[in-house]
Amino acid sequence: MLRSCYRRNIFCQLRKPLGYRPILAPRSTIRTYSSDVENLKKETEDVDLSKSVEYTGVIDYEKEQNVLLYFDHIYPIMSRWGKILQHVPILNNYYNDERVKNHITNLIQSEANPLPENVSMKNFVALKRDGGAFVTFSIPADHAVQDVSNKMISNANEKVLTSGLDFIRNLYTSVTHQTITCFQVKGTPWIEDLRRHPSPRLKVIFEGDSLTEEELYVLFRRYGVIVDIIPANSSTPYATVIFKRVRSAACAKNCMTGIELPKHGTTLHLRYIPLERVNVVKDLIVNHQRISIPIILALLATVAVLIFDPIREKFIEAKVTHKYSLDTYKDNKYFKYIYTPYKTLVFWIRNGYRYLDENLISTTHTGRDKPPTDYDNAIWYERSEKVKQLRLWIYENINTFIIVRGPKGSGKQEFVLDHCLKNDERLKNKILYIDCDALAKSRNDASLITSTAQQVGYFPVFTWLNSISQFIDLGVQGLTGQKSGLSESMETQLKNILSLTSQALRGIALNEYRTYRSSALQRKKLPSRSDVDVTAEPEVLKEDEYLQQHPEGKPVLVINNYAMKSDKGHDVIYPLIADWAAQLIQNNIAHVIFITDDVGSLSQLSKALPNQVFKGITLSDASTESAKHYVLNQLSDVAGNEGTSIDSCLGPLGGRMLDLQAFVRRIRSGETPKNALEEMIHQASEQITTFFLNDTVASQPDREWKTTQVWTIIKLLSDNDSVSYSELAKIPLFASYTDTLSTLSALEKYDLVTLNRNKGVLESISIGRPLFRAAFKDIVQDVQLYKNYETAYYKGLIETENAKITKLEDEVAKISKLSDLKYLKSRLEYIQSKIEASTNTILDYEAQLKDVGKVDKPKKSILGIQIS
Length: 868
Fold this sequence. Notes:
Layout lengths: L1 H10 L21 H11 L9 H4 L9 E7 L7 H6 L3 H6 L2 H12 L11 E8 L4 E7 L6 H14 L5 H12 L5 E4 L16 E7 L5 H8 L5 E5 L7 E6 L2 H11 L3 E2 L4 E7 L7 H8 L1 H33 L14 H15 L1 H8 L18 H5 L1 H13 L4 E5 L6 H10 L9 E5 H5 L4 H12 L7 H17 L9 H20 L1 H15 L17 H7 L6 E5 L12 H14 L4 E6 L4 H8 L6 E4 L5 H11 L8 H5 L2 H4 L3 H12 L4 H19 L3 H4 L8 H11 L4 E3 H4 L8 H13 L3 E6 L2 E7 L2 H12 L1 H33 L5 H34 L5 E3 L2 E3 L1
Parallel strand pairs: 10-13, 10-14, 11-12, 12-13
Antiparallel strand pairs: 1-3, 1-4, 2-3, 5-7, 5-9, 6-7, 8-9, 15-17, 16-17, 18-19
């Protein structure tokens, strides 16, 4: 407290308002800076414990036989960074006070201009903020103070040391114009530690009369080059001196502060004028938003790509290769001690009820849920040749764009993953599985992006940034008039994910290529031997050539549940996946296998690869014998269900796995085989009548069939395994090839029928699901349903014939104006015959329509001809 009060009292006279103009007193009564300081020190001498500069801010020395010099650039360069450098340990040791004192002593000594022997350093005051120091030297009484002072200044300014670190420092300071210089202090220096950093601009406050520009130039030019001098005027009672360098201003401020000019009756007080620093980055952002904001966003995007994309690529590779999966190391004998208990514990937790049921209740209920037997593999035994065919296509490496088709429940996924890929040691750790059904079920764009990223292993993904970027984009658009481009569309983000996945898959495919290349180059560098012709060795294969010859190195992309159109939304994902898979094939990066039960999806895939023929495998239903073995094995522990009673019910079910499993569940729930089959047929019939034969549903825009067309197909397939397309085309309802093909494709998509093609041409139509044959018979044998739909069928035929007659009558009206009577006569005869034929056909349909309401038992009819 004593220290702060004392210092405040000392310098209170210097803190005057900016516009302060002192009223000059007579010369004899003018207060000078020196007398003020001396009087204050004398008044407080009784309480001052020390006369140190730290407390008084003033250097005490007797001017008679002492000289005060100022040395600049003794310490690191004057700036805020210089203050940081002063705390660096190496520099702190180099710039300690004792070393600096020794350096100053060496500077003032010179053999060419020697000093008196009794000259000694009396006081040393470091001014590290300004990079300099005040040094007081005592001068012998028999020497003139000014002469000795001039010698010391001359020696210090001219001497250059040439050894050790001093040489390096002097070389650096010479290049950067930061050499050590020395000046004699003219005034009374004010050693203050206020937060006033050096600047090249000095404020000169006059206590007395102001000085002119010429007088100020004479006083300050010795300290460095002056850029400008702004003299005092009526509005600004102080002058401004602007130096070229900061060091010049610091020397002038420390040497000229408090100088007394008796002839002018003026005392000068100097102060640094703070620099008005301009933040270039801030100015660019604030004043040039249309330029700065896009640049900043581009830089942020670049940094994000450089940081996160390599991380994401590693995560994708880990998902495909299972590098960090526990299952990869399960065969290790040391790892088994940890892995086996872990898997057992996980199994108990996830299947607790089943575990108790199998291990505790099995004492009273033996044989329930038996483990799989050879009967379970009967279905897969029938498909062993197709498994071999699929593997052969992969290892042939020729157009490995494979499509695995089959009805729902035919085990397509198990066929590809479990029985083909995972049984192959070279392929099982290079599988990327994507389920399109999980992508289609996404509720919004963010959920779709997250689901896609999880499918391919893309991590980390920041979906929340897209919402924030949309608000930022709106703000930038309001400020600059254009969008920032920060927010990306959902389709763009999906493309970025798939593009990075392609890079990861290529890295996996070329993983073994690096080893091959290094070993091949090493072999070529070996010296030639007499028994081996090195020149005969093949050249090192390029990347594409290596992948073509080593198909086992490429990963396998399995895309399941691919469909042309999803009823659940997000249809954009299917064309993207098709195009992405086509690029993988064209760039020879991976094998691609599509698993689908949607026939219409082939058209979408054909657009992605229009000039290639796809390799396809179609999985049909299991044979009757395999289906029987499967059901009997599942029901072997159920009492009261002998093989003969079950065998009689398996005919209508066929080999569709979904129907067989539903049949097994019904029997296990307590139903008899006959009741279970009847109930399943009834449900299938209700499904067909509700969805395909309902006029209200069929009239919706997304339905591509007519009720009469579906009814016709049901009647034909109720007693026939298949119907040839040539016979179906004879029915008037299927006269147009384009419309008929579109209708049949829509029905095949919903699994009502199956289209059989020969060399790509439609040949016949068969039932899409084995159970539907019994359902068709059930619908046709229902008297009420038969009357309703058969009536609608004949009415449809009558409408078709009436439309023909109307068209022919319109033609008669048009050609009646022709002048060529011969042509007119022949054309009218032809039209008349057509109208008569259509009229007779309508009469026949009307007669049959009357008979429909009279019969109690449905009759079969093809092309309108009754069959008993």
